[in-house]
């Protein structure tokens, strides 16, 4: 399941009037009937929100314009978020590619290596993690109290020492722990991405600890034992090879 579909059935009516859905990383390939950029625009329209999709690649921007017109912006993501002057209700981060293994790196290089070189960038995992983290930091003070954050290609590490050292891997490796510190909770996980949400209900330290180290799979019982709601598990691992143990 594509990560933007984590918003299916989410009621955005609590989002402040005039706030926006912002996607960083626009539709890159045509073919899908309902690509993320179009889906998010429709979702924004349904709830009376603004919509913007941002991409630094002229080719992706031109394609996105075909779906959402002037709501597509040609700009680097952090630069756009830094100058953005509205409230953000939903932030969808799906941009700087994260090569999951050597084969994926080769495939990405063939598909879009030149796009990154044109921007003076080198496509590495570390850079992907850094860039998504920087974008979240540029956006977080603009996100409304009631808001949603979706980050693509993000997984929990398999249970064990790895998870203690580094709970998540993928594009959101840095974003998710940062978002937990900013009062977000992981609402849905288990497909190719994660959806977090924030409300006026504060996240207490034990719940934050659970969110960091325990998922909605085999470790969900720990949440229940402590009186918290575990993240909802959503099926479908997406296109990246993900850890075998979902917990
Ligand atoms: C995986 S695609 C986005 C796919 C789209 N969200 C969808 O689901 O169809 C990633 C896009 O992010 C763009 N991108 C990568 N790094 C970026 C950055 N720092 N700022 C803006 N766009 C970026 C790429 O040009 C590419 O078009």
Which SSEs are present, and which pair or pack?
Elements: E1 20-24, H1 36-46, E2 50-55, H2 58-68, E3 72-74, H3 77-83, E4 88-93, H4 102-118, H5 125-139, E5 143-152, E6 154-156, H6 161-165, E7 168-170, H7 175-181, E8 185-189, E9 193-198, H8 205-213, H9 220-226, E10 232-233
Parallel strand pairs: 1-2, 1-4, 2-3, 4-5, 8-10
Antiparallel strand pairs: 5-9, 6-7, 8-9
The chain binds S-adenosylmethionine (SAM).
The site of S-adenosylmethionine (SAM) has 21 residues, from strand 2.
Notable characteristics:
247 residues, alpha/beta, Rossmann fold, eight-stranded mixed β-sheet, two-stranded antiparallel sheet, 10 strands
The global form is: globular
| Structural class by SSE content | alpha/beta
Q: Give the distinct bound molecules.
A: S-adenosylmethionine
The CATH architecture assignment turns out to be 3-Layer(aba) Sandwich
Model regions low in confidence, pLDDT < 50 over at least 5 residues = 241-247
Strand content: 15-25%
Separate helix tally: 9
Query: How would you characterize the largest beta sheet?
Result: 8 strands, mixed
Say how many strands there are: 10
> Based on the structure, what is the oligomeric state of the protein chains?
single chain
């Amino acid at each position: 399941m594509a990560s933007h579909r984590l918003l299916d059935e989410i009621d955005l009516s609590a989002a402040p009037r005039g706030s926006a859905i912002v996607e960083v990383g626009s539709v890159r390939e045509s073919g899908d009937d309902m690509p993320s950029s179009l889906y998010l625009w429709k979702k924004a329209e349904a709830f009376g929100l603004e919509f913007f999709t941002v991409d630094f690649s002229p080719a992706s921007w031109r394609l996105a314009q075909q779906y959402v017109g002037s709501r597509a912006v040609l700009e680097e993501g952090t630069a756009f978020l830094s100058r953005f002057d509205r409230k953000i209700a939903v932030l969808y981060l799906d941009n700087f590619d994260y090569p999951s293994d050597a084969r994926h790196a080769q495939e990405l290089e063939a598909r879009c290596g030149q796009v990154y070189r044109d921007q003076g960038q080198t496509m590495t995992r570390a850079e992907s993690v850094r860039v998504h983290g920087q974008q979240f930091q540029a956006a977080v003070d603009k996100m409304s109290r009631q808001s949603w954050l979706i980050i693509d290609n993000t997984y929990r590490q398999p249970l064990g020492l790895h998870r203690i050292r580094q709970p998540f891997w993928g594009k959101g490796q840095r974003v998710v722990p940062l978002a937990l510190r900013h009062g977000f909770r992981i609402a849905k996980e288990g497909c190719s991405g994660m959806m977090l949400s924030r409300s006026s209900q504060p996240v207490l330290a034990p719940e934050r600890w659970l969110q960091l180290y325990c998922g909605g799979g085999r470790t969900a019982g720990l949440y229940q034992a402590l009186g918290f709601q575990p993240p909802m598990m959503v099926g479908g691992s997406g296109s990246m090879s993900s850890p075998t143990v979902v917990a």
